[in-house]
Specification:
This protein is of the alpha+beta class. It has two domains: 92 residues, 2-Layer Sandwich (Phosphorylase Kinase, domain 1), CATH 3.30.200.20; 197 residues, Aminoglycoside 3'-phosphotransferase, Chain: A, domain 2 (Alpha-Beta Complex). It contains eleven helices and eleven strands. It has a five-stranded antiparallel β-sheet with strand order 1-2-3-6-5, with helices on both faces. Strand 1 and strand 2 form a beta hairpin. Helix 5 packs antiparallel against helix 6. The longest helix is centred in the last third of the chain and has 19 residues. It starts with a helix and ends with a helix.
């Protein structure tokens, strides 16, 4: 990736400085400054000027439709977007100034991997952000372009991951059949119940502590809605906390006390999340992958899941 061309774009857009923050497969993020005010510039590697990436449209159309006042939640405000020939589309949002969790959670540092150093007071932040998300009218956002999770692509992903699990000997044929059975209520109930919005990667490492009462949520590029998003948010954070069992137990206990979490949905999405983590994200990561496999197999056994659910 040509860093100099990105810096030229930053100057062309009128910013006085730009510092690289991080990148992924299809985007690169910079912290840019103009007149003492900081913004986040995301450059997407999509060079078709006529086809604006969905990642950009989420910021330019969908997130602008979200009410600004929440109990705790702060969402980055959209500023502008455009196209840079030879580079791709870009979008600029305001920069949320605060402390993130990157210095407290790093999967490659054993002393803080798997959420090991995360304190229990973050659970209240977690559930309050969920409460704010639940208060946002997701149906209205779907009407202006927010994506909904769909059963077809979800089932396709499940089957693809189960195929990998069979091929590498992680799961037996009977276990794969059980996984399919557990996922069925999730797939069959896709269009039932109230929709909830999330950024599709709802976890502490996307939180920014702005003040004792305000927490930013970043990484909205794949935001979506579903009728099991509550269960998805809790299950996803639960499996990511593989190195902090007391936090896991407290999270599930608090979430069940504050929200109406459906047991069958939670079991289904916990299984799906662990399956995806084990077969894709952490497929070549040894110990981390094994934790996800253990969770996956645990969801397939009725007694083992009851221990998780009632912990």
């Amino acid at each position: 990736m040509d860093e100099s061309r990105h810096l030229n774009l930053i100057r062309d857009l009128g910013y006085e400085s730009g510092v690289f923050v991080r990148d992924s497969v299809n985007r690169r993020i910079y912290k840019v400054c103009k007149g003492g005010r900081y913004s986040a510039l995301k450059i997407f590697l999509a060079e078709d000027e006529e086809k604006i990436p969905n990642d950009v449209l989420i910021h330019s159309d969908v997130l602008r439709g979200i009410p600004k006042s929440h109990r705790r939640l702060v969402i980055p405000s959209y500023e502008h977007h455009g196209f840079a020939p030879g580079l791709g589309h870009y979008v600029v949002t305001d920069w949320l100034d605060g402390r993130d969790f990157n210095d407290r959670w790093d999967e490659w540092k054993p002393d803080i991997a798997g959420g090991r150093s995360i304190q229990h007071d973050t659970i209240n932040i977690f559930v309050e952000l969920i409460e704010d998300l639940m208060g946002i009218p997701a149906e209205d956002l779907v009407a202006i372009g927010l994506s909904k999770r769909d059963p077809e692509s979800t089932e396709e992903l499940i089957n693809e991951c189960l195929g990998v699990a069979i091929d590498d000997g992680t799961l037996s044929s009977d276990q794969c059949k059980q996984a399919t059975r557990i996922a069925q209520p999730l797939l069959e109930g896709f269009h039932e119940g109230r929709l909830m919005l999330s950024n599709a990667d709802f976890q502490l490492r996307n939180f920014v502590e702005i003040s004792p009462t305000q927490t930013g949520l970043v990484d909205w590029d794949t935001a979506c809605a579903s009728n099991f998003e509550l269960e998805n948010c809790v299950a996803y954070q639960w499996i990511l906390m593989w190195n902090n069992p007391p936090w896991q137990r407290s999270l599930l206990r608090e979430a069940r006390a504050r929200f109406e979490i459906e047991r069958t949905k939670f079991r289904g999405i916990l299984m799906v999340r662990a399956l995806i983590q084990a077969m894709t994200t952490w497929r070549k990561s040894g110990d981390i992958r094994q934790h996800q496999i253990d969770y996956l197999i645990g969801t397939l056994d009725d007694e083992a899941f009851e221990l998780m659910w009632g912990s």
